[in-house]
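[agent] plan:
  1. take the single chain provided in the ticket
  2. run structure prediction with default settings
  3. attach structure tokens to the ticket
  4. add a short note for the reviewer (M.T.)
[agent] executing step 1
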Amino acid sequence: MSNSLPVLAITVGEPAGIGPEIALRTAWDYRRQCRSVLIGDLDFLRELANRIDPAIQLTTAAQTDVLQVLHSPLACPVIAGQLDARNGLAVLNTLDLAIQGALDGHFDAIVTAPLQKSTINAAGVVFSGHTEYLAEKTNTAKVVMMLANLSEDQHPLRVALATTHLPLRAVADAINVAELSQIIAILHSALQRQFGIAQPVILVAGLNPHAGENGYLGREEIDIIEPVIAAARAQHMDVRGPYPADTLFQEKYLTQADCVLAMYHDQGLPVLKYASFGRAVNITLGLPIIRTSVDHGTALDIAARGLGLADTGSMQQAMLAAIRMTKTRITP
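[agent] step 2 finished; step 3 output follows
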């Protein structure tokens, strides 16, 4: 991009949730650090902005101290806290506009507020989540989900997942040499190219208790994880492990690492969310574009109670992460 400030496309998410409010508040607060383009219904966002703070100004053109909106009209009026499937396709359209704009070079990064999967499915589109949809729309064969606490007052805590939304019974079958090798390659490349880490250190958790205890508690470490780590190290990647997951998340390990690779969702994310919930960032790795998001859902109950109650902490971190990544990324 030719602009001095990075241009972020911000999809406002489910209109009945807290997404539009936290997007407006945070974009306004950070208007001197980036140029935000909110993607949503202009009239709805103008009315909401006026209720949040009459000083917030919206326009369809890029202007200083004014938030730009890429208009994506809603199908029906919004009642805070109440889902309406008639708006499902409009929500999905905001994501389509953001993706295409980023692919075309109009946006440096995408930041997504939370959406409600059920309204999109109820509108007739099979939709399993942002991550899968982004991969499909960018023709990306494999992506990796990472959640991170990138607060500047502490060492970054990044946790990537080898598997994501799978039943626990299916996790072991999903972990194989080819998949795990590809995940580590994507993770290593992203840490270099999007985070500017020249020689990233990746710590890999074992799948089984005690990392299998030499095969007594499972052979996945011996048959799959250890050979993959050895192959990665042979390619000059600093990949270490497998570590028992119950002792891996200690300061003596984490301060020496740039990322932890957990084998499944509830192995790595409870630790990160306990330490960072409301301040963590969801980052999709492996895409040809930068995408960050909040670490929480639509919070319909909070939205129903009125404005001013939603915590903007995760949206702030998502925007800051996107800004940093646009500055540190290395293009191929």
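[agent] step 4 note for reviewer: The chain has two domains: 1-140+287-332, 142-286.
[agent] ticket updated
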